[in-house]
Model the fold of this input.
Amino acid sequence: MSEMTRTPIGETAQAVGQTVKISGWVQTKRDHGKITFIDLRDRTGVIQCVGYKKMGELTTESVVELVGLVKQRPEKMVNADSPLGTVEFDVQEYTILNPAKELPIQVDEDGRDINEESRLRYRYLDLRRERMRKIVKLRSDYFHAMREALYEREFTEVETPMLTKSTKEGARDFVVPSRLQPGKFYALPQSPQQYKQLLMTAGVERYFQFARCIRDEDLRADRGFEFTQLDLEMSFVKREDVMKTVEDVVKQSVKAVGGKLKDETFPVFDYKDAMAKFGADKFDLRTEEEKAAGVLSFAWVINFPFFKKVDTSDAAEVMDGKSGWTFTHNPFSSPIPEHEEWLLKGERVGEILTTQYDLVCNGYEAGGGSIRAHRPELLRATFKVMGYSDAEIQDGVGHMLEAFEVGTPPHGGIALGLDRHVMMLANEDSLREVIAFPMTSSGKTAVMDAPSTVSDEQLKELHLQIVLPKVAKK
Amino acid sequence: MSEMTRTPIGETAQAVGQTVKISGWVQTKRDHGKITFIDLRDRTGVIQCVGYKKMGELTTESVVELVGLVKQRPEKMVNADSPLGTVEFDVQEYTILNPAKELPIQVDEDGRDINEESRLRYRYLDLRRERMRKIVKLRSDYFHAMREALYEREFTEVETPMLTKSTKEGARDFVVPSRLQPGKFYALPQSPQQYKQLLMTAGVERYFQFARCIRDEDLRADRGFEFTQLDLEMSFVKREDVMKTVEDVVKQSVKAVGGKLKDETFPVFDYKDAMAKFGADKFDLRTEEEKAAGVLSFAWVINFPFFKKVDTSDAAEVMDGKSGWTFTHNPFSSPIPEHEEWLLKGERVGEILTTQYDLVCNGYEAGGGSIRAHRPELLRATFKVMGYSDAEIQDGVGHMLEAFEVGTPPHGGIALGLDRHVMMLANEDSLREVIAFPMTSSGKTAVMDAPSTVSDEQLKELHLQIVLPKVAKK
Done:
């Protein structure tokens, strides 16, 4: 590499008449024999470069370093469609920093016609396409804006464990065998629900985390094993306080990245009104015109039933709802104050409303939260309604009940599904488009060959033996 | 709860003469019969409250809401040691929001005399002590400052997968059985090393992540299974460029949280000079005076040997170094340019120096990174030196070699051990003091009962059977 300082391509327009060094990827090449034109791309821009004979050897997507003169283009040669269309780069020297062989997938189009497996196997190429580069940047910018909005409101960021205990979140856990404690397993967090509540017991008062959550659910286009949620929790609040704070943070962050909102104040629907009006608790309020304009339409839904009859075809629900009742959203929620007595007495179970608030956007669920039970008798009553014995309650949430007896403030919070937020901001329709290295729909990790086999030695250390099904399924 | 808006205790001094609502924890109580004094604490401050007879019922650490009058104290009653020592709160009404039973551990001291198991089991109480509250806040503030420093330098935040492939990082992986692919396992990331390099192939150019890393290492006071690293990577850089950027980010962030630096420019030591001078590659440059002043003494160490003779007592080294040679720091590093030929020819292996740079602070390793091999022949040569066959290289890092043939820029980066940074900033000497919910030294998760057993049903779904050792160890 030349010892000159590298000039970002986006800044070359300010360097007309100067000899500078630029480096990046050969986006296109037009070899006219004596003259070779290339468009060179870095993360800041693309510039047309004019070189001579030998440069014909450059292959597209190779990484090169060019030293040369930045020239103003004659007026009739200006390309008004390009941000750097007023200048061109007269190559004096070039160095190939990394040559590109023929690419297994092309990166100059939007990539939607390439099959998923190839796109994910070569994700490091797939991410080079303009559409994907913008999404990666948008995601970073949106997270940045959210953090700023939270810091301004005096939230404290706290990390919670990745190796933890199975919790009652309603989905299947991924488990991690312990080498030091034979036959025992950690669970990966489905969400930091209990830890964030314990941080309220600790007195943090305003907590947030961009939490990595992992659930062993059956995969579908719109759901992977991993997701990122903005997890937050506040003390000494009522339902409306959390909703107000979250609404303000979301609005501020959406605007910061140039997103457009349909409503400056998010409309609030009662669950029963939403069901009557839309036939669903997720709905899209946009007109066709608003859809075309790329507007985000947020709304709140409140006053959900706390419990529902167990769906006997769902194994997890059957397990959680021994009594025939299971929770609709979150067993750690508090009912609305008017219904606390019913819960405590186990009466009118089907009529009890939870403090749950769901944030919906463009027909999707964009987040959900609630005011939590912070009195032990309320949490105990919830599990009783579902048919848990005292011993089972103690085993499952005994540590929470203990925490609720040593000064736990009233508290509530929310979890926002950020992959989905970015998906909507980017106007995409699959979560895989907004995750840098997502899994394939069969659960294979992008680029890497995972899951894969482990050695007998490793299995032995973990005190495990594999029992393959008689007829192995793929 | 009263419908009045809550006033943060830290703002009561601006509310003299007003009737306000405050809420928080009863830090101390002095019951003088007719009059009861309590100190009420929230996250913003502590205020002395004066109440009457019945308030004697309040127990310490209960959560209460008080409505009352903020009064200026008479001059002779001012407590100059307390930020709110000029005011007191005349209680008119109080509501117990959550009563505290007798506490299993006390929270009014620094907690160092309480055994670790109790502190971690009741971590939600342990975190209430002033020392711990300050650390939680300091950690959040330091991370905030680092992010700001990175955003200013146009870094993009990207998340990489938690369920991934076993990588060659030199420690033992935690593995996660796949339900959908019988007999196969994901690995939890020891670091995002390969993904961050692939992001350079993708053209991100400046990447960072506050990465959650997980390694199944034998536990010791100074090391847990989980840690958080600031992971960053840059394209088109030389060793000195990365060191300069990292040094600037660290200095800016340390100062932002009030930390004191011994050196405005971090001294740089050659590995061999450091060994000759200090007998170690981690060293403490502070005088006793500087230690007492809580100064942070950062320094760089460079020009490490790339390879070392395998320590035959270390199973991982034996596995990686089939030839008798293994890497000292990172097999993905590039040697210094002058030694590339030796590596490519497999000559003078013991003399090859790596581009590795270690950041040390106060005698600890505070981070480490390198310029990476971005040409396939260099990475291949590194594994050849260690005795890997072509097939093993293809199986282990074939995807990296492929990426290096489609336009990967020169790149390098670093990983900073942030738990340790916060430990030093807080002047603590155990990592457990700076992690909200750390594991015990026996690998048990704080508060929760993990690891724990899983059901036979779950094991069956995962195609696993437990094989307990003949003599079960605890």
Q: What stands out?
A: The first helix of chain B runs from residue 116 to 121.
